[in-house]
Amino acid sequence: MAEIIVVNVVASASIGKELMLQDIAFQLEGAEYDQDRFPGLIYKLAEPKTAVLIFRSGKVVCTGARSIPDVHVAINKVVDELRVLDMPVKDEPDIVIQNIVATTNLESTLNLIQIAMSLGFENVEYEPEAFPGLVYRMDDPKVVLLLFGSGKMVCVGAREVNNIKDAVRNIKEELSTAGLMRT
Amino acid sequence: MAEIIVVNVVASASIGKELMLQDIAFQLEGAEYDQDRFPGLIYKLAEPKTAVLIFRSGKVVCTGARSIPDVHVAINKVVDELRVLDMPVKDEPDIVIQNIVATTNLESTLNLIQIAMSLGFENVEYEPEAFPGLVYRMDDPKVVLLLFGSGKMVCVGAREVNNIKDAVRNIKEELSTAGLMRT
DNA sequence: TTTCTTTTAAAAAGGGTATTTAAACCTTTA
DNA sequence: TAAAGGTTTAAATACCCTTTTTAAAAGAAA
């Protein structure tokens, strides 16, 4: 079975109280902050390679992590840096994984038109002239799959890694049963 | 003492579960519904003269009422009309008064520049070239007063009528003490 | 050839969209 | 010149947008 590769993890966390973003922007090297564009301050870390959005409320969003442990490492790094700047931050931020994006290879070229008909148009969106992937909204687990003619797929919206495993297992079963995959 | 006139009462309420706004828009005479402009359906009542915003969530907002009893009359009218259309509505919507707007006359012309200095620039905004009224944010009760050179004023943000009475009493006392009102 | 656009999910928090109302001053429009 | 509309304030409702990240692959633009 082709491996499932997590390519992006998005998480949110509360790291403290009211933060003075203007001060942080001035003291934190590399911080991007343009209130007119976006209310959050954008801080990109090189290792783990992530982008952390810091908000006035003390909440943050971490994007781009390749694993859940990396999310924790990234957020803790930001918290430590803010602590050095004497900003009011917690010792243990409460991190919540919000979205895990993963890819895998179904190892079979796919006839997306036939798959669209088979999965039912109520859960499928397929407009090759707009986007080459077929969008399938799975109910359980509640995730969205992007299927490509090459057999590769992307799973987005998962809250935990097991959701992805279940989704991949389900779609393989559905396609195989419908005879839409080289078995 | 010049009377306080309530000119607008805004209230919110939950009147039921998920509502099909599209259906309501089609069946309710006079309903305005344009999803691209605003997510709520706008329904204007002639008596009491109000505008009720109905949302998909089953929550509504009533604006324009001249009194608190009128808010109840208006919302109940809407609920009754929706019930006739077989929409899922409650028997007793839980109405919450969110904002009461009132006007009164301080019966003295006011020197807004002097008042701005006296009340303290941290709570006052006065830019006559932009807007003729002086904006005063009172802490207790937490309301905002718009003072005009004519002596007339507007009080917004009150949650109950007593807030307005207290606010008027307070501003009169503050201005009189500072000798900024003809007593 | 490289880059960008298309699509999807998710959070954060502002801004805009719309509704109502008074005050009074300015500008625009018939 | 009169009438209309814009200026400001509060409040709830709930959507859209903004930004960040990431893969897939097709088409277009540079």
TrEMBL record, chains A, B:
Query: What are the transmembrane regions?
Result: none
Question: What InterPro entries does UniProt report for this protein, alphabetically?
Answer: TBP, TBP_archaea, TBP_CS, TBP_dom_sf
Kindly name one Pfam family recorded for this protein: TBP
Instruction: Write the record's keywords in alphabetical order, separated by commas.
Output: DNA-binding, Repeat, Transcription, Transcription regulation
Does the record bear Ribosomal protein in its keywords? Answer: no
Asked whether the UniProt record includes Transcription among its keywords, one would answer yes
Among the GO biological process terms of this entry, one is: DNA-templated transcription initiation
- The sequence repeats lie at 6-82
Q: Which SUPFAM superfamilies match?
A: TATA-box binding protein-like
Coiled coil, from the record: none
Task: Provide a Gene Ontology MF annotation, just one.
Answer: DNA-binding transcription factor activity
Protein purpose:
General factor that plays a role in the activation of archaeal genes transcribed by RNA polymerase. Binds specifically to the TATA box promoter element which lies close to the position of transcription initiation.
Give the family per the record. Answer: Belongs to the TBP family.
Could you tell me which NCBIfam families the record lists for this protein?
A: PRK00394.1-2
The protein depicted here goes by the name TATA-box-binding protein
- This protein's species is Marine Group III euryarchaeote CG-Epi6
Q: Which gene encodes it?
A: tbp
